[in-house]
């Protein structure tokens, strides 16, 4: 079976979608999948599904959801799918079958390759990691207090993977390919100085110095108007270097250290 959470929750068996229709059963499944092979406390399931004022029947209802998940998927597994283990339940699954685990593994491999100076492998691993995303994490489930931190964690790892893949592609001289993506990202994150820095560097590297300077000026205006601050010293120095036509060497180690 394949479980995907980087987008709407989906469960695939032999290429066919096999997912409960009831939202709260899917919601319960999502909690167990994000902590696959670990104990998920019953109280956490109840807090997630009903918040601070659960109904008196919450425990019985949660147990019913677990029963329905066991019944639905028990024939798909040679061993147990969900077992009871105090103070809650454990969903047993191969991490290679859950996209969140695969995503984190590929991101770690890509980061390690980048640190080791293997930009080709880094770009490959990180691109594969990012390709797993089909939209916002669990976009069809109304995340509560337990799921929300997991979703935030995955979103942050995705942004780091995107930054590292940008560095790997830049190290390989793929500046022209990076420019459209970096333009989109700087518009989506108008206060992110690091992304603007990468766009300025890419534009300068392909001979578009005027566009690079305009990118800096746009960021400068945005920061001043919205936050009352000026660009950081590294960006100010980069702006000066573009003005005078200087291209500074940018080692992978230095760039990694500069990442937010």
From TrEMBL:
InterPro entries: AfsR-DnrI-RedD_regulator, BTAD, OmpR/PhoB-type_DNA-bd, Sig_transdc_resp-reg_C-effctor, TPR-like_helical_dom_sf, WH-like_DNA-bd_sf. Belongs to the AfsR/DnrI/RedD regulatory family. PROSITE patterns: OMPR_PHOB. SUPFAM superfamilies: C-terminal effector domain of the bipartite response regulators (SSF46894), TPR-like (SSF48452). This is BTAD domain-containing putative transcriptional regulator. It comes from Amycolatopsis speibonae. It comes from the Bacteria. Residues 1-93 bind DNA. Keywords: DNA-binding, Transcription, Transcription regulation. Pfam families: BTAD, Trans_reg_C. Signal peptide: none annotated. Residues 1-93 form the OmpR/PhoB-type domain.
């Amino acid at each position: 079976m394949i479980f995907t959470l980087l987008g709407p929750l989906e469960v695939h068996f032999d290429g066919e979608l096999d997912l409960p229709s009831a939202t709260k059963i899917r919601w319960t499944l999502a909690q167990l999948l994000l902590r696959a092979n670990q104990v998920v406390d019953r109280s956490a399931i109840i807090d997630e599904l009903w918040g601070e004022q659960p109904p008196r029947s919450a425990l019985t209802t949660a147990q019913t959801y677990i029963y329905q998940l066991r019944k639905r998927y028990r024939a798909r597994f040679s061993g147990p799918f969900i077992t009871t283990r105090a103070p809650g339940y454990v969903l047993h699954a191969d991490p290679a079958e859950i996209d969140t685990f695969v995503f984190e593994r590929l991101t770690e491999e890509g980061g390690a390759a980048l640190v080791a100076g293997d930009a080709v492998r880094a770009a490959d691993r990180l691109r594969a990691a990012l390709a797993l995303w089909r939209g916002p994490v669990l976009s069809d489930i109304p995340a509560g207090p337990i799921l929300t931190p997991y979703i935030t964690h995955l979103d942050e790892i995705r942004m780091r993977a995107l930054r590292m893949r940008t560095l790997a592609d830049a190290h390989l001289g793929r500046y022209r390919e990076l420019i459209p993506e970096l333009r989109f990202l700087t518009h989506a994150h108008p206060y992110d100085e690091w992304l603007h820095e990468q766009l300025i560097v890419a534009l300068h590297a392909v001979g578009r110095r005027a566009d690079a300077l305009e990118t800096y000026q746009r960021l400068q205006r945005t920061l001043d108007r919205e936050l009352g601050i000026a660009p950081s010293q590294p960006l100010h120095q980069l702006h000066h270097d573009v003005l005078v036509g200087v291209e500074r060497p940018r080692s992978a180690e230095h760039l990694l250290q500069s990442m937010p």
